[in-house]
Amino acid sequence: MSFQSTILIHPGLGNSGEGHWQTLWQEQYNLERIQQRDWETPIRTDWVQTLDEAVLRAGVSNVILVGHSLACVTIAYWAEHYQRPIKAALLVAPSDTEAASYPSGTTGFSPMPTVKLPFPSIVVRSTNDPYMTMERAQDMGEAWGSELITIPNAGHINVASGYGSWPAGLELLQQLDHL
């Protein structure tokens, strides 16, 4: 499989380790991974700046961002701040940084950004994600102007939830690639 667009993988907290679909896609399709300085105690302004630098290096207009968890929130903050006309974004299992259950250690990711994204996007949510309720994911998807895809009982759509290479996710990425 090859892509027409430049695909930038952006993991969330912990950097989507071995066996995670983001890591597998990166390795299998030679995709670029955005490298944040701090994967465990991130600061929003640092993550947004690093994301912007990666998008500018890649050429902006032909970029598709693939975010997981906290990276989805980062992408929304980045879009609000920079309004860059990228091609699209695949936002998988966004985490609710305002929830009482959200892990501590992040700085500046609350409140959740609610700006309409200036590019096409798909938000993929699970019916039992421990980091974002279905209702909250619906609210974020609507605020961001995203198409909303629901996967039953998929947890946080990560290795712990049984998601390795995730072919259905690749189909969504291909859909965005052909816009």
UniProtKB/TrEMBL annotation:
The keyword Transit peptide does not apply. Keywords: Hydrolase. GO terms for molecular function: hydrolase activity. SUPFAM superfamilies: alpha/beta-Hydrolases (SSF53474). The keyword Protein transport does not apply. This is Alpha/beta hydrolase.
